[in-house]
């Protein structure tokens, strides 16, 4: 009996060792080879150190940017500000998702499926559990009904295009849902009914890693305590074109700037810091949903740049430069202005632009970044503190205080004088504010070998 037991153990050992590629060596878990992929519309900003702060005279006498040598890691950055066209893609996605969710919920309540047509064509994809995977069935049995609406996590059907022409609505239930997303007749004029943009909300969750890491040393913490949920109205505030300027006729910009194709390649404005953060989350989700469908590994998150990253990218590798092109002048040797700003008192058009210009205007800096000075100021992820440079780290510095609602904006805009175009000039706006002269661009951390040629 003892011999039989030992023989069995030896046989099991042989089975477990036969065919092993490791041959008893510590080779690590073999995953897929990772190849860094440059995101569309972005440029790689190679890691490096630079002198952050004002190396020239502080004309504003703000004393909020003393010189400090810092180092930042490699990252990708949008080569232009986010445009109206790009932000409209976000808005259209949210609108589409909201309508499909409403249609699917009503179809579920009525018990109508795809086989019955009409609103049933937009029923949740998991309605037919005979075709669901084992995992899908398990999730439906164990987790369906948990959450605010009870429909969280259920797959929307995107096989059918949404119908927007009222004459082609498939049934009365579809009509009911579509009617609910438009402004009422009392709020419409000239026979036109428009989408109620206040209903275009994007909801997402994120984890406050920094708070969790600092709290973990105290113990007795749970992961769920640091998961934050945000719900943001994402449509730009077009009224900024009127509210930002008293006794000024800017109604054409209010009426047309965001939605008209004539302004598609212009930077989006009227976006608060919270809306910019929501866009970053959506962009990450949009990319990773596609990667998931292709069986590819997820990318890391898109986000707003830190103040240090923004200044490093704006300098374009020029040490001690006043502007992204170096400086110290804002006019080229051919007599042309180098950016879109207000060159003279009240003369907004002296630089051949009245308001904003297309995002790919003027010459890019040496990192191939367009309009890092002028056009629109840009949100950063950093909170504003006049003395931040005195205490932030010299490695990837960031003053990201969640309780501080003053957020750093950089670069100056079409309505600013040259001082605000300087790469070292700091300014701020409150996170819940939207302005006709503030936009944003996104960044993504570079993963892989620290090679600037990638």
Which key terms come to mind for this protein?
single chain, 454 residues, alpha+beta, paralog of FGE (formylglycine-generating enzyme), 2 domains, four-stranded antiparallel beta sheet, four-stranded mixed beta sheet, globular, disordered C terminus
What this model shows, in words?
InterPro entries: CTDL_fold (IPR016187), Glid_motil-assoc_lipo_GldK (IPR019866), Sulfatase_Mod_Factor_Kinase (IPR051043), SUMF_dom (IPR005532), SUMF_sf (IPR042095). Keywords: Lipoprotein. It comes from Maribacter spongiicola. Residues 42-443 form the Sulfatase-modifying factor enzyme-like domain. This is Gliding motility-associated lipoprotein GldK. The protein is an alpha+beta fold. The chain folds into two domains: 29-81 and 265-454, Alpha-Beta Complex (paralog of FGE (formylglycine-generating enzyme)), CATH 3.90.1580.10; 85-264, no CATH class. The chain is built from ten helices and twelve strands. It has helices at residues 2-17, 84-110, 134-143, 172-180, 209-216, 240-243, 251-256, 273-293, 307-315, 388-391, and strands spanning 42-45, 48-52, 68-72, 75-78, 201-207, 227-233, 302-303, 377-383, 406-410, 427-430, 438-439, 443-445. The protein has a four-stranded antiparallel sheet with strand order 1-4-12-7. A four-stranded mixed sheet has the order 10-9-8-11. Strands 2-3 form a two-stranded antiparallel ribbon. α2 (84-110) crosses α4 (172-180). The radius of gyration is 27 Å and the shape is globular. The model is unreliable at 450-454 (pLDDT under 50).
